[in-house]
Design brief:
- The complex is a heterodimer.
- By secondary structure, chain A is of the alpha+beta class.
- Chain A contains five helices and nine strands; from the N terminus they run βαββαββαββαββα.
- In chain A, the strands form two sheets. In chain A, strands 5, 6, 7, 8 and 9 form a five-stranded antiparallel sheet that branches. A four-stranded antiparallel sheet of chain A has the order 2-3-1-4, with helices on one face.
- The model of chain A has no long low-confidence stretch (mean pLDDT 91).
- Chain B is of the alpha/beta class.
- At the A-B interface, α1 and α2 of A face loops of B.
Chain lengths: 171, 559
């Protein structure tokens, strides 16, 4: 089973998310992560969906997505050909002084940031590939994770290749 | 330039007129009353009041199938809307163009669990091609135009428009957009020319080709192109249930229907073919039998307007996405004349050895009834069926030669579809003879529409194949569940003749074989709504039959 990252440009209507998410469930695909936000173009949102499946499953889900009237474009973003990032906020226990300095070291190594702190805990912000975020979380586990929240992956093609419909219209 | 100000309800009616809608089906209720108020004084659109919203949806569907136009129905919010759900799913699975309006509570009440509020948009997401909640009256005309466009183009399907009550009353300037502009919806109409060339070459090369034609041929009006292809290269044609009528079953190249209850020769031919030309089909499990064995000897050409159907169930060798009519026209220009004598001889032999057959004795056999209906209607009637054994007999023993003359619930298999669909078909084609073949189980699922048929003087003939069972389920119980007839015995059936008479219609009972043709003659000569209740043997089975999960060439009832 391969993991795929799919970029989906959709009309910014109420109900679009339900339409797209429902399609995955109905056709038996599990969404691993989903990130949605506005784009460079008015009224168009972009969903970045990570899904597991073989080539044939991916082809079917791409075609089914394309059938939705509110879906404007669907692209498979290959990892080799793209930059991808995820953001995570990690709240970790810091009940001893020793722990605290060790955690600060790790935050430095990972070029993460401490964005909130008190005597009991620290909140760390990190961005990077999914692997990097996973690695930091693994390292922080022994200190006691209180809470972790992740945005899910977002991705862009490298170089001038793009998913956008915006530039095409300008050219 | 200024435009006239109209209410939302007036805009709906104006848009229906712009789209050429003549007949609509529905039932009023609280949240749709402003629209019904406008319909009250509208003379150019005929509104047919059904007795249940499911009947309205199926009637609009039957109208669409019989005419090729978009079917339209209306219901109120809440229960009115949820009663449409089966009808929408039915149309969705068979790719039938419908535009469906539902009333909704006013926009300020949405989300409060108001009286008769239901999220019909959410409920129908998976069974509509697209759906809308109208939130601003200024969007209404555009939405209606889009809905009709989406419903009838590409792979057709139902579209639902949810109309909050305040939107029906709000006013705006009415302007029907010049054209539809949807950047997320651009069906591919003309096929890839390189693929078309390869397909033509394969057809010219094939020694044992078979055409497997489905409902897409009807949607695309490509029946004459299909015939040209078959006649030019002498290719035998088998159709799915949905494809009946696309190719004349009276012609020697016809193999009839394939699949679970297909003819033995169609199933043998498709299993032995070296080339399967699949036209507007979706390789449904009722057609293919065991998937891994389907066409295992063959290269497969698959032409369909929906890219998602290509490679969904079966991997194909030559996919072509496009409108069948356009693609077949191009292919036909490249096809060489061919005799295929050897292959056709093999098929002829199968036809001789394994014809469709039943024991035609003194009993009133359902197969005999269909043959008599065929004779008396000269094969020209619009046959509308319900779902079950009678449906399969109607598919097997009537010879369809004209597209849109066999109307049946294929994908969803909706018992209760046939009778209201026949009402829709008759309203769409008043000049044609419409005969509904039903069962005692199916008919009772929407028999309230007798009132609709009688009130509107619709000259439909309903033939009930009354065996006192939910017959198809009983057949499966007999074959696969040790004859344990769990809940399939229909005790307490009404006297259908009296039932019809109670509504002011005419009922005829047929107990014996020799009573049948006089009853049919009488029914068809009366030119009014007539129900014929045929008492048939209880445990007659539909054969041939491919057990679920078996390969097509292994059939029960073929020897």
């Amino acid at each position: 089973m391969m993991r795929h990252t799919i970029a989906v440009l959709v009309k910014d209507h109420p109900g679009v998310l339900a339409r797209v998410a429902g399609l995955f469930t109905r056709r038996g695909f599990n969404i691993e992560s989903l990130a949605v936000g506005h784009t460079e173009e008015n009224n168009i949102s972009r969903m970045t969906i990570v899904v597991e499946g073989d080539e044939r499953a991916l082809e079917q889900i791409t075609k089914q997505l394309n059938k939705l009237i509110d879906v404007i474009r669907v692209r498979d973003i290959f990892p080799l050909n793209s930059v991808e990032r995820e953001l995570a906020l990690i709240k970790v226990n810091t009940n001893s002084l020793a722990n605290r300095s060790e955690i600060i070291q790790m935050v430095d190594i990972f070029r993460a940031k401490i964005i909130d702190v008190n005597s009991q805990m620290m909140t760390i912000e990190t961005t990077g590939t999914e692997d990097k975020v996973n690695a930091l979380i693994e390292l922080l586990k022994p200190f006691g994770l209180k809470e972790v929240v992740r945005t899910g992956k977002i991705a862009l093609f490298r170089g001038s290749k793009s998913v956008s419909t915006f530039k095409k219209q300008e050219e | 330039m200024s435009y006239m100000k109209l209410t939302g309800a007036q805009i709906v009616v104006e848009c229906l007129k712009k789209e050429g809608v003549k007949v609509i089906f529905g039932i009023p209720g609280g949240a749709i009353m402003p629209l019904y108020d406008i319909l009250y004084s509208e003379t150019s659109i005929k509104h047919i009041l059904t007795k249940h919203e499911q009947g309205a949806a199926h009637a609009a569907d039957g109208y669409a199938r019989a005419t090729g136009n978009v079917g339209v129905c209306i219901a109120t919010s809440g229960p009115g809307a949820t009663n449409l759900v089966t009808g929408l799913a039915n149309a969705y699975l068979d790719s039938i163009p419908l535009v469906v309006f539902t009333g909704q509570v006013s926009t300020n009440l949405i989300g409060t669990d108001a009286f008769q509020e239901v999220d019909i948009n959410g409920i129908t997401l998976p069974i509509t091609k697209n759906n809308y909640v109208v939130r601003e009256v200024r969007d209404l005309a555009r939405i209606i135009q889009e809905a009709f466009y989406i419903a009838r183009t590409g792979r057709p399907g139902p579209v639902l428009i949810d109309l909050p009550k305040d939107i029906q009353l709000a006013q705006t300037e009415f302007k029907y957009p010049e054209k539809v502009s949807l950047n997320g919806y651009k069906p591919t109409f003309s096929g890839h020319i390189q693929q078309i060339k390869i397909a033509a070459q394969e057809i010219n090369k094939a020694k044992k080709p078979v055409i497997y034609a489905g409902g897409g041929v009807i949607s695309s009006n490509a029946s004459s192109e299909l015939r040209d292809l078959a006649f030019q290269a002498n290719i035998p044609v088998t159709t799915t249930l949905m494809g009946l009528g696309t190719f004349p079953e009276t012609h020697s190249l016809s193999l009839g229907m394939l699949g679970m209850h297909g003819t033995a020769y169609a199933n043998y031919a498709i299993s032995a073919a070296d080339l399967i030309i699949a036209l507007g089909v979706r390789f449904d499990d009722r057609v293919t039998g065991k998937l891994s064995k389907f066409g295992s000897q063959a290269k497969i050409i698959h032409i369909d307007i929906d890219p998602a159907e290509i490679g969904k169930n079966v991997l194909v060798d030559i996919p072509i996405v496009g409108d069948l009519k356009k693609v077949l026209k191009k292919i036909n220009e490249m096809i060489e004349k061919k005799e295929n004598t050897e292959w056709l001889e093999i098929i002829k032999d199968w036809k001789r050895k394994y014809p469709l057959k039943y024991e035609n004795n003194q009993e009133l056999k359902p197969q005999y009834i269909i043959e008599e209906v065929y004779k008396i209607s000269e094969g020209k009637a619009v046959i509308v069926t319900d779902v079950g054994q009678h449906q399969m007999w109607a598919a097997q023993y009537y010879q369809y030669t004209i597209p849109r003359t066999f109307i049946s619930s294929g994908g969803l298999g909706t018992m209760g579809y046939g009778f209201p669909a026949a009402i829709g078909a008759k309203l769409g084609c008043p000049e044609k003879r419409v005969i509904c073949i039903s069962g005692d189980g199916s008919f009772q699922m929407n028999q309230q529409e007798i009132a609709t048929a009688v009130n509107n003087n619709l000259a439909i003939t309903v033939i009930i194949m009354n065996n006192g069972y939910l017959g198809m389920v009983r057949q499966w119980q007999e074959l696969f569940f040790n004859k344990r007839y769990s809940s399939t015995t229909l005790t307490g059936n009404p006297d259908f003749v009296k039932l019809i008479e109670a509504y002011g219609g005419t009922g005829i009972r047929v107990n014996k074989k020799q009573e049948l043709s006089p009853a049919l003659e009488k029914a068809l000569s009366l030119n009014k709504f007539v129900l014929i209740d045929c008492i048939i043997p209880g445990e007659e089975n539909v054969f041939p039959m491919v057990s679920p999960g078996s390969p097509l060439d292994q059939m029960i009832g073929v020897d």
